[in-house]
Amino acid sequence: MASGHRAQWKGFIKFGEVSCGAALYTAASTSDRITFNTINKATGNRVNRVFIDGETEEPVPKEQQTKGFEIENGQYIVIDPDEVAATIPESNKTLEIEAFIPCSDVDDVYFDKPYYLTPDKMGGDAFVALRDGMRKSKVAAIARTVLFRRMRTVLIRPHGKGLIATTLNYDYEVRSSKKAFEEMPKLKIEGEMLDLAKHIIGTKKGDFDPATFDDRYEAALAELVKAKMEGRSLPKPKKFEVSKPNDLLAALRESAGMLKATGDKPKPTPANANSGVGRPRAARGAAAKAASSKAAPQRKAS
């Protein structure tokens, strides 16, 4: 893996009697998002978090803090961190493959977090044999190991030159869809209404390219911070207008007519096309540059 990326886990992949060294790296990160600190409006100073005893209202130092499970209202069983550690299975360094399954067998609702899975120095041949064998057989692997002090089930799939391992939610963690959809009306759409919907869908077909989707909220935050630093007026939110008429068939006809008139498929907005703001990281760089020319009190107030 590229320098600067630290492995989240190192151990061994085991399939049958074959094993090889492997490492997991975070595939998705929120570290580039803009973050805020809590500030005292009166002084402009940062506010620190202090844990307070719920009864005595006295501050509790870190060394006196522990974990507890509530058995009744206000009554707890105290659980020491060492007791938690003792419950962890011994096989916390082995990613043992239990079965190979069709790639489509796992519902996406069970997907949790993705990790890049790479060979760790030794065992490259076994790793590549596993990757290419899975790719040609068009299968994924179900494996289990201990990650972050918890036994996790992992779905492993070929991905580029390596593998991608996605932690899976347990069945008890995934809520049933029956309750979510129990109030869905029993309707059957057909005729012109269905044809118009199919026409709109067909006109707007495209390909998924994550580079073309920008985080508009993050870019707006970056623009807000930059405007405050430069003393400019703050951006005004655009007024949202509800589509009219409310009649579904009329709205479908209107949508289909507009798409037919343009004759072009909608083009996704480039990630760097937001009012010159660019990606959040670039905006933060510009904001930081603007801040460097301000006096210390102004930086503090921002």
What CATH architecture of the largest domain would you give?
Beta Barrel
Sequence stretches where pLDDT stays below 50 over 5 or more residues: 266-284, 286-302
Q: In DSSP terms, counting alpha (H) and pi (I) runs of 4 or more, how many helices?
A: 8
Give me the side-by-side strand order of the main sheet: 1-2-6-9-8-7-5
Count of distinct strands: 9
- Note the beta-strand portion: 15-25%
Task: Output the CATH topology of the largest domain.
Answer: Ku70, Chain: A, Domain 2
Largest sheet: 7 strands, mixed, barrel
Question: Which CATH class of the largest domain?
Answer: Mainly Beta
Helix content: 25-40%
Structural domain count: 2
**Distance separating the two termini:** 38 Å
Give the H and E element order: EEEEHEEHEEEHHHHHH
Radius of gyration: 27 Å
Q: What do the pLDDT scores average to? A: 77
Q: What structural class do the secondary elements suggest?
A: alpha+beta
Shape: extended
Strand and helix layout:
Blueprint: E1 9-15, E2 18-26, E3 67-72, E4 75-79, H1 81-86, E5 94-102, E6 111-119, H2 124-137, E7 139-147, E8 150-159, E9 162-168, H3 177-180, H4 192-203, H5 216-230, H6 248-262, H7 280-292, H8 296-301
Parallel strand pairs: 1-5
Antiparallel strand pairs: 1-2, 2-6, 3-4, 5-7, 6-9, 7-8, 8-9
Helix pairs in contact: 4-6, 5-7
